[in-house]
Amino acid sequence: MEKYKLLIVEDDPNLGQILKEYLELKGYETLLCPDGEVGSKSYNKEVFDLCILDIMMPKKDGFTLAKEIRLSDKKTPIIFLTAKSMKEDTIEGFRIGGDDYLTKPFSMEELLMRLKAIIRRTSVKDLAKNDQKEFEFGQFKFLSDKQLLKINNSEIKLTTKENELLRLLCVNKDEVMERTTALKKIWHDDTYFNARSMDVYITKLRKHLKEDQNVQILTIHGRGFKLVAYI
Amino acid sequence: MEKYKLLIVEDDPNLGQILKEYLELKGYETLLCPDGEVGSKSYNKEVFDLCILDIMMPKKDGFTLAKEIRLSDKKTPIIFLTAKSMKEDTIEGFRIGGDDYLTKPFSMEELLMRLKAIIRRTSVKDLAKNDQKEFEFGQFKFLSDKQLLKINNSEIKLTTKENELLRLLCVNKDEVMERTTALKKIWHDDTYFNARSMDVYITKLRKHLKEDQNVQILTIHGRGFKLVAYI
DNA sequence: GAGGGACGTTAAAAAGCGTTAAAAGCCAAC
DNA sequence: GTTGGCTTTTAACGCTTTTTAACGTCCCTC
What we know:
The structure is a homodimer.
Chain A: E1 5-9, H1 13-25, E2 29-33, H2 36-45, E3 50-54, H3 62-72, E4 78-82, H4 87-96, E5 100-103, H5 108-122, H6 127-130, E6 134-137, E7 140-143, E8 148-151, E9 154-157, H7 160-171, E10 177-178, H8 179-187, H9 192-209, E11 215-220, E12 224-229
Parallel strand pairs in A: 1-2, 1-3, 3-4, 4-5
Antiparallel strand pairs in A: 6-7, 7-8, 8-9, 10-12, 11-12
Helix pairs in contact in A: 2-3, 7-9
Chain A binds a DNA duplex through α7 and α9.
């Protein structure tokens, strides 16, 4: 079963390690970053289900990082951690688009409860679907673990990248597969050339999917792609 | 503009009144109940977007009320208010299915921020889920999830923006689609240039809709547009 | 009915995407 | 280690979508 993935950005190595261990014990996958800059880089390379950001940190503080994240991503929940309980700070945290704000010292249990409450409310993601290996749409049958796309009596062997991209489209069928998500998950970096490479693969997949006119990959301009089947 | 409706259950008449007045000033519709029993009755009579429950109350405490609510309704967010900051209590609040937990005394501003953060999340989720995907008006059939506008035997492929705008007009058919609403929902910012861009798209849509003379996009000067079909 | 703000339309600029082909990278067989 | 075949990336060009700009018209207010 796939786990929820958390980005923890905390400069105090003790607290960071405690957070990491506790949350991993509770069944989450975590990545711990020692400052805002490393946190920013990690955020741009991977997809996380939730971010836990300390506010006062060297190099780049939590508010600045949160603002950067919110420029492109309004969705991923953010929890702030801080030693200051100042009213203005709290309000600033929510103004930026944070989802919760915990003042140190807090109990691990309370953090966990708040984290769960947020994920329960926000997560549209179905973890079970992420483990799915076979998909059907239109007249196609897609076996992602065998890299095979079947239609009628013919089989198309997919390359690794074709396979991963089609899989992500299937997991998000009838919803938008965001460009940035695909780039992070499949190409591990959201850069100009990777984006061009992805466009090439969309073309390749569209050619394969031509066999059934009722299946299409729609372009959602500025956001990504959407796999739809008309029947 | 429809307001969010809040159920406030608080036995302290002073705090209750302050909450009510403050939140109404901030644009919410509220109903204040003096204890859990009255709160329970009110909850069963009306639909609320969020509940604010004090925990220690005569007749029926906040936890009991929350449990009742969660028996039938897992969705409506619940914020607990309490004088006790005991850890077990907080955790119990989240265990029941609460969404946030504020310890008295708290600032009205912080309550408002937390409330907004929760509503921002839940309303986004709802919009994504319970949205209609197919519309009919005049001789048109509009499949918004496929970005297709059909009339007679022809299909018009819509661009992403055309599609989103037409969808918003359809949702508000025969009523005014406010300019600011459209700009916020589709362009994510109500600025001068986005407003001009939207005008361009209204022109594009009007061209597409020319196929049926009985369908029109009316201009409501100073407010927005209205999609109407005369037959 | 004059003036200013709001809207309508068209065209050009900018940004984003689609497609093809060539270059580079990878890997297994020889 | 070199070859050949396949996958992936880079490059280039053309096209579509979206935004910006400019100018004309409408419409409300005074």
